[in-house]
Amino acid sequence: MPPRNSIAALLLVLPALAWCSLTHAEQPLLVVGHLNPDTDSVCSAIAVAHLKTAQGIPAQAIAQSPINAETRYVLDTFSLPQPPILSRVAGRRVFLVDHTDYSQAPADLKQAELIGFADHHKLGGLTSDKPVEAWAAPLGAAATVVTRMYDSAGIDIPQGVAGCLLAAVLSDTVRFKSATTTPDDRKAADRLARIAGVTDIDALGQKLLEAKSDIRGQSPATLLQRDLKTFDINGHKVAIAQLEFPDLTLIRSMREGLLDAMQALKHDGYHSVLLMLTDVSLEATELLIVSDDPAIAEKAWGLRSEGDALWMPGVMSRKSQIVPALQNALK
Ligand code: MG
Ligand code: MG
Ligand code: MG
User: Fold this and answer.
1) Distance CA 45, CA 142 (A)
2) How much is the pTM?
3) All domains of the chain, ordered by start, with CATH?
4) What is the arithmetic mean of pLDDT over 279-297?
Protein backbone atom coordinates (compact mmCIF):
# COMPACT_ATOMS: atom_id res chain seq x y z
CA MET A 1 0.00 0.00 0.00
CA PRO A 2 1.48 3.43 -0.92
CA PRO A 3 2.21 5.75 1.98
CA ARG A 4 -0.58 8.09 2.91
CA ASN A 5 1.49 11.12 1.82
CA SER A 6 1.70 9.89 -1.78
CA ILE A 7 -2.05 9.28 -1.91
CA ALA A 8 -2.63 12.83 -0.72
CA ALA A 9 -0.16 14.11 -3.30
CA LEU A 10 -1.88 12.08 -6.03
CA LEU A 11 -5.28 13.49 -5.02
CA LEU A 12 -3.83 16.98 -5.33
CA VAL A 13 -2.24 16.28 -8.69
CA LEU A 14 -5.18 14.46 -10.34
CA PRO A 15 -7.41 17.50 -10.94
CA ALA A 16 -4.42 19.38 -12.34
CA LEU A 17 -3.68 16.47 -14.70
CA ALA A 18 -7.30 16.37 -15.82
CA TRP A 19 -7.25 20.13 -16.40
CA CYS A 20 -4.02 19.86 -18.39
CA SER A 21 -5.35 17.15 -20.70
CA LEU A 22 -8.52 19.18 -21.17
CA THR A 23 -6.67 22.34 -22.18
CA HIS A 24 -4.38 20.33 -24.46
CA ALA A 25 -7.41 18.85 -26.20
CA GLU A 26 -8.85 22.35 -26.49
CA GLN A 27 -6.59 23.80 -29.19
CA PRO A 28 -6.75 27.55 -29.76
CA LEU A 29 -9.50 28.98 -31.92
CA LEU A 30 -8.07 29.77 -35.38
CA VAL A 31 -8.85 33.21 -36.82
CA VAL A 32 -8.29 33.45 -40.55
CA GLY A 33 -8.80 35.88 -43.44
CA HIS A 34 -9.15 35.16 -47.14
CA LEU A 35 -6.70 33.45 -49.48
CA ASN A 36 -4.00 35.82 -50.81
CA PRO A 37 -4.41 37.80 -47.60
CA ASP A 38 -4.37 41.59 -47.63
CA THR A 39 -3.67 43.90 -44.72
CA ASP A 40 -7.37 43.93 -43.70
CA SER A 41 -7.47 40.12 -43.53
CA VAL A 42 -4.24 39.81 -41.54
CA CYS A 43 -4.81 42.72 -39.12
CA SER A 44 -8.46 41.80 -38.52
CA ALA A 45 -7.39 38.21 -37.75
CA ILE A 46 -4.70 39.40 -35.31
CA ALA A 47 -7.19 41.75 -33.62
CA VAL A 48 -9.97 39.16 -33.29
CA ALA A 49 -7.49 36.57 -31.94
CA HIS A 50 -6.39 39.09 -29.31
CA LEU A 51 -9.98 39.99 -28.43
CA LYS A 52 -11.07 36.35 -28.09
CA THR A 53 -8.02 35.57 -25.94
CA ALA A 54 -8.81 38.58 -23.73
CA GLN A 55 -12.34 37.18 -23.38
CA GLY A 56 -10.93 33.86 -22.11
CA ILE A 57 -11.04 31.95 -25.41
CA PRO A 58 -7.43 31.24 -26.43
CA ALA A 59 -7.14 32.14 -30.10
CA GLN A 60 -4.46 32.26 -32.77
CA ALA A 61 -4.38 34.34 -35.97
CA ILE A 62 -3.24 32.45 -39.04
CA ALA A 63 -2.85 33.27 -42.75
CA GLN A 64 -3.68 30.84 -45.54
CA SER A 65 -0.82 31.98 -47.75
CA PRO A 66 2.20 34.31 -47.40
CA ILE A 67 1.48 37.93 -46.55
CA ASN A 68 2.17 40.76 -49.03
CA ALA A 69 4.76 43.55 -48.87
CA GLU A 70 2.28 46.13 -47.56
CA THR A 71 1.23 43.87 -44.67
CA ARG A 72 4.88 43.08 -43.86
CA TYR A 73 5.51 46.84 -43.63
CA VAL A 74 2.50 47.24 -41.30
CA LEU A 75 3.50 44.38 -38.97
CA ASP A 76 7.08 45.68 -38.78
CA THR A 77 5.88 49.24 -38.09
CA PHE A 78 3.62 48.15 -35.23
CA SER A 79 5.95 45.41 -33.91
CA LEU A 80 3.54 42.54 -34.44
CA PRO A 81 4.64 39.00 -35.35
CA GLN A 82 3.64 37.53 -38.71
CA PRO A 83 0.83 35.00 -38.28
CA PRO A 84 1.88 31.44 -39.14
CA ILE A 85 0.83 30.11 -42.55
CA LEU A 86 -1.73 27.35 -42.17
CA SER A 87 -4.18 26.27 -44.83
CA ARG A 88 -5.71 23.20 -43.13
CA VAL A 89 -8.33 23.76 -40.46
CA ALA A 90 -10.23 20.41 -40.41
CA GLY A 91 -11.28 19.47 -36.88
CA ARG A 92 -10.43 22.92 -35.52
CA ARG A 93 -12.69 25.75 -34.33
CA VAL A 94 -12.50 28.60 -36.83
CA PHE A 95 -13.48 32.29 -36.92
CA LEU A 96 -13.41 33.94 -40.38
CA VAL A 97 -12.56 37.55 -41.05
CA ASP A 98 -12.84 39.64 -44.23
CA HIS A 99 -14.65 36.95 -46.29
CA THR A 100 -17.46 34.41 -46.21
CA ASP A 101 -16.92 32.82 -49.63
CA TYR A 102 -15.94 29.15 -49.59
CA SER A 103 -13.79 29.82 -52.69
CA GLN A 104 -11.61 32.17 -50.57
CA ALA A 105 -11.70 30.19 -47.30
CA PRO A 106 -9.50 27.24 -46.25
CA ALA A 107 -10.38 24.35 -48.62
CA ASP A 108 -11.34 22.05 -45.71
CA LEU A 109 -13.47 24.63 -43.86
CA LYS A 110 -16.51 22.36 -44.04
CA GLN A 111 -14.62 19.84 -41.85
CA ALA A 112 -14.00 22.53 -39.22
CA GLU A 113 -16.34 24.00 -36.62
CA LEU A 114 -17.32 27.53 -37.65
CA ILE A 115 -17.57 29.74 -34.55
CA GLY A 116 -18.24 33.08 -36.23
CA PHE A 117 -17.25 35.68 -38.80
CA ALA A 118 -16.56 39.40 -39.10
CA ASP A 119 -16.91 40.73 -42.62
CA HIS A 120 -17.80 43.65 -44.90
CA HIS A 121 -18.43 41.84 -48.21
CA LYS A 122 -21.49 40.27 -49.76
CA LEU A 123 -22.43 37.02 -48.03
CA GLY A 124 -20.54 34.22 -49.67
CA GLY A 125 -22.75 31.20 -48.97
CA LEU A 126 -21.48 30.10 -45.55
CA THR A 127 -23.48 27.53 -43.64
CA SER A 128 -22.91 26.09 -40.17
CA ASP A 129 -23.97 23.20 -37.95
CA LYS A 130 -24.34 25.35 -34.84
CA PRO A 131 -25.33 28.94 -34.14
CA VAL A 132 -22.49 31.35 -34.98
CA GLU A 133 -21.33 34.79 -33.91
CA ALA A 134 -22.07 36.98 -36.94
CA TRP A 135 -20.53 40.43 -37.31
CA ALA A 136 -21.12 41.97 -40.71
CA ALA A 137 -21.78 45.49 -41.94
CA PRO A 138 -21.40 47.38 -45.22
CA LEU A 139 -18.32 49.28 -44.03
CA GLY A 140 -15.05 50.11 -45.76
CA ALA A 141 -12.98 47.51 -43.93
CA ALA A 142 -13.42 44.38 -41.83
CA ALA A 143 -11.11 46.22 -39.41
CA THR A 144 -13.93 48.73 -38.72
CA VAL A 145 -16.28 45.81 -37.98
CA VAL A 146 -13.65 44.36 -35.61
CA THR A 147 -13.32 47.76 -33.89
CA ARG A 148 -17.06 47.51 -33.18
CA MET A 149 -16.49 44.05 -31.67
CA TYR A 150 -14.00 45.54 -29.18
CA ASP A 151 -16.42 48.36 -28.33
CA SER A 152 -19.25 45.95 -27.78
CA ALA A 153 -17.06 43.75 -25.54
CA GLY A 154 -15.78 46.80 -23.62
CA ILE A 155 -12.18 45.64 -24.13
CA ASP A 156 -9.29 48.04 -24.80
CA ILE A 157 -7.48 47.73 -28.13
CA PRO A 158 -3.73 47.33 -27.54
CA GLN A 159 -1.52 49.98 -29.16
CA GLY A 160 0.06 47.76 -31.83
CA VAL A 161 -3.24 46.10 -32.70
CA ALA A 162 -4.83 49.55 -33.08
CA GLY A 163 -2.05 50.57 -35.50
CA CYS A 164 -2.58 47.41 -37.52
CA LEU A 165 -6.36 47.99 -37.66
CA LEU A 166 -5.80 51.62 -38.68
CA ALA A 167 -3.53 50.48 -41.55
CA ALA A 168 -6.20 47.98 -42.60
CA VAL A 169 -8.87 50.71 -42.77
CA LEU A 170 -6.54 52.97 -44.80
CA SER A 171 -5.58 50.14 -47.14
CA ASP A 172 -9.08 48.80 -47.78
CA THR A 173 -10.64 52.24 -48.28
CA VAL A 174 -7.65 53.41 -50.39
CA ARG A 175 -7.16 56.24 -47.90
CA PHE A 176 -10.89 56.95 -47.72
CA LYS A 177 -11.13 57.44 -51.50
CA SER A 178 -13.01 54.21 -52.26
CA ALA A 179 -16.78 54.33 -52.75
CA THR A 180 -17.06 51.82 -49.89
CA THR A 181 -15.84 54.37 -47.31
CA THR A 182 -18.35 55.31 -44.60
CA PRO A 183 -18.28 57.93 -41.82
CA ASP A 184 -17.77 55.03 -39.39
CA ASP A 185 -14.51 54.10 -41.10
CA ARG A 186 -13.20 57.65 -40.68
CA LYS A 187 -14.32 57.78 -37.03
CA ALA A 188 -12.75 54.40 -36.31
CA ALA A 189 -9.52 55.48 -38.04
CA ASP A 190 -9.27 58.65 -35.93
CA ARG A 191 -9.78 56.69 -32.72
CA LEU A 192 -7.38 53.90 -33.73
CA ALA A 193 -4.75 56.52 -34.65
CA ARG A 194 -5.03 58.07 -31.17
CA ILE A 195 -4.59 54.67 -29.50
CA ALA A 196 -1.72 53.73 -31.80
CA GLY A 197 0.02 57.10 -31.39
CA VAL A 198 -0.12 57.79 -35.14
CA THR A 199 -0.20 61.58 -35.61
CA ASP A 200 -0.16 61.71 -39.43
CA ILE A 201 -2.72 59.30 -40.88
CA ASP A 202 -2.11 60.45 -44.45
CA ALA A 203 1.64 59.85 -44.19
CA LEU A 204 0.94 56.28 -43.07
CA GLY A 205 -1.46 55.88 -46.00
CA GLN A 206 1.25 57.09 -48.40
CA LYS A 207 3.76 54.57 -46.98
CA LEU A 208 1.21 51.79 -47.42
CA LEU A 209 0.60 52.70 -51.06
CA GLU A 210 4.37 52.78 -51.70
CA ALA A 211 4.75 49.29 -50.19
CA LYS A 212 1.64 48.00 -51.97
CA SER A 213 2.65 49.27 -55.42
CA ASP A 214 6.22 48.00 -55.25
CA ILE A 215 6.50 45.67 -58.24
CA ARG A 216 10.29 45.44 -58.47
CA GLY A 217 11.47 41.95 -59.37
CA GLN A 218 7.93 40.54 -59.57
CA SER A 219 6.80 38.42 -62.51
CA PRO A 220 3.41 39.16 -64.10
CA ALA A 221 2.06 35.82 -62.80
CA THR A 222 3.11 36.70 -59.23
CA LEU A 223 1.59 40.17 -59.51
CA LEU A 224 -1.67 38.71 -60.81
CA GLN A 225 -1.89 36.49 -57.70
CA ARG A 226 -0.99 39.29 -55.24
CA ASP A 227 -4.58 40.35 -54.56
CA LEU A 228 -6.63 37.84 -56.55
CA LYS A 229 -10.00 36.53 -55.42
CA THR A 230 -12.06 33.82 -57.02
CA PHE A 231 -15.84 33.74 -57.09
CA ASP A 232 -18.53 31.33 -58.14
CA ILE A 233 -20.92 33.70 -59.93
CA ASN A 234 -24.11 31.86 -60.83
CA GLY A 235 -22.11 28.74 -61.70
CA HIS A 236 -19.34 30.63 -63.53
CA LYS A 237 -15.83 30.51 -62.12
CA VAL A 238 -14.50 34.08 -62.13
CA ALA A 239 -11.16 35.46 -60.91
CA ILE A 240 -10.83 39.16 -60.12
CA ALA A 241 -7.44 40.60 -59.22
CA GLN A 242 -6.60 44.16 -58.23
CA LEU A 243 -3.37 46.14 -58.18
CA GLU A 244 -3.24 49.71 -56.90
CA PHE A 245 -0.70 52.32 -57.99
CA PRO A 246 -0.06 56.03 -57.38
CA ASP A 247 -0.40 56.22 -61.18
CA LEU A 248 -0.45 53.62 -63.94
CA THR A 249 2.81 54.61 -65.68
CA LEU A 250 4.50 52.17 -63.25
CA ILE A 251 2.71 49.20 -64.80
CA ARG A 252 2.49 50.19 -68.50
CA SER A 253 5.44 48.08 -69.63
CA MET A 254 3.98 45.01 -67.91
CA ARG A 255 0.54 45.14 -69.48
CA GLU A 256 1.15 42.49 -72.17
CA GLY A 257 2.82 40.17 -69.66
CA LEU A 258 -0.14 40.55 -67.31
CA LEU A 259 -2.59 39.72 -70.11
CA ASP A 260 -0.55 36.57 -70.90
CA ALA A 261 -0.65 35.58 -67.22
CA MET A 262 -4.44 36.15 -67.19
CA GLN A 263 -4.81 34.00 -70.31
CA ALA A 264 -2.73 31.24 -68.66
CA LEU A 265 -4.82 31.36 -65.48
CA LYS A 266 -8.03 31.26 -67.51
CA HIS A 267 -7.06 27.79 -68.76
CA ASP A 268 -7.71 26.52 -65.18
CA GLY A 269 -11.42 26.47 -65.99
CA TYR A 270 -12.32 30.14 -65.53
CA HIS A 271 -15.15 31.80 -67.42
CA SER A 272 -13.49 35.18 -66.91
CA VAL A 273 -10.27 36.56 -65.46
CA LEU A 274 -10.32 40.28 -64.67
CA LEU A 275 -7.55 42.52 -63.45
CA MET A 276 -8.26 45.95 -61.97
CA LEU A 277 -5.31 48.32 -62.43
CA THR A 278 -6.36 51.08 -60.09
CA ASP A 279 -4.93 54.59 -60.43
CA VAL A 280 -5.19 56.10 -56.97
CA SER A 281 -4.37 59.68 -58.10
CA LEU A 282 -7.00 59.69 -60.86
CA GLU A 283 -9.43 57.59 -58.74
CA ALA A 284 -10.08 55.34 -61.73
CA THR A 285 -9.45 51.78 -62.84
CA GLU A 286 -8.28 50.24 -66.07
CA LEU A 287 -9.98 46.86 -66.16
CA LEU A 288 -8.20 44.15 -68.16
CA ILE A 289 -10.57 41.43 -69.30
CA VAL A 290 -10.02 37.88 -70.53
CA SER A 291 -13.41 36.19 -70.87
CA ASP A 292 -15.44 33.54 -72.69
CA ASP A 293 -18.03 36.27 -73.24
CA PRO A 294 -16.74 39.11 -75.47
CA ALA A 295 -19.73 41.28 -74.51
CA ILE A 296 -19.25 40.91 -70.75
CA ALA A 297 -18.22 44.56 -70.18
CA GLU A 298 -21.21 45.83 -72.09
CA LYS A 299 -23.60 43.53 -70.17
CA ALA A 300 -22.10 44.39 -66.80
CA TRP A 301 -21.39 48.11 -67.08
CA GLY A 302 -22.95 49.21 -70.36
CA LEU A 303 -19.45 50.11 -71.52
CA ARG A 304 -17.79 48.94 -74.71
CA SER A 305 -14.28 47.69 -74.00
CA GLU A 306 -11.39 48.70 -76.22
CA GLY A 307 -9.90 45.32 -77.05
CA ASP A 308 -9.13 43.72 -73.72
CA ALA A 309 -9.31 46.85 -71.58
CA LEU A 310 -11.96 49.10 -70.10
CA TRP A 311 -11.28 52.54 -68.59
CA MET A 312 -13.56 53.08 -65.59
CA PRO A 313 -13.48 56.56 -64.02
CA GLY A 314 -14.53 56.61 -60.34
CA VAL A 315 -14.12 52.84 -59.96
CA MET A 316 -11.81 51.61 -57.18
CA SER A 317 -13.78 48.91 -55.36
CA ARG A 318 -13.95 45.28 -56.45
CA LYS A 319 -16.66 44.41 -53.93
CA SER A 320 -19.04 47.27 -54.60
CA GLN A 321 -18.38 48.25 -58.23
CA ILE A 322 -17.20 45.09 -60.00
CA VAL A 323 -18.67 41.97 -58.35
CA PRO A 324 -22.35 43.08 -58.17
CA ALA A 325 -22.42 44.09 -61.88
CA LEU A 326 -20.93 40.74 -62.85
CA GLN A 327 -23.57 38.95 -60.79
CA ASN A 328 -26.21 40.69 -62.89
CA ALA A 329 -24.40 40.13 -66.18
CA LEU A 330 -23.69 36.42 -65.64
CA LYS A 331 -27.25 35.29 -64.94
MG1 MG B 1 -9.51 41.72 -48.00
MG1 MG C 1 -11.48 43.91 -46.35
MG1 MG D 1 -8.74 45.25 -51.22
Assistant:
1) 10
2) 0.88
3) 29-210 (3.90.1640.10), 220-329 (3.10.310.20)
4) 95
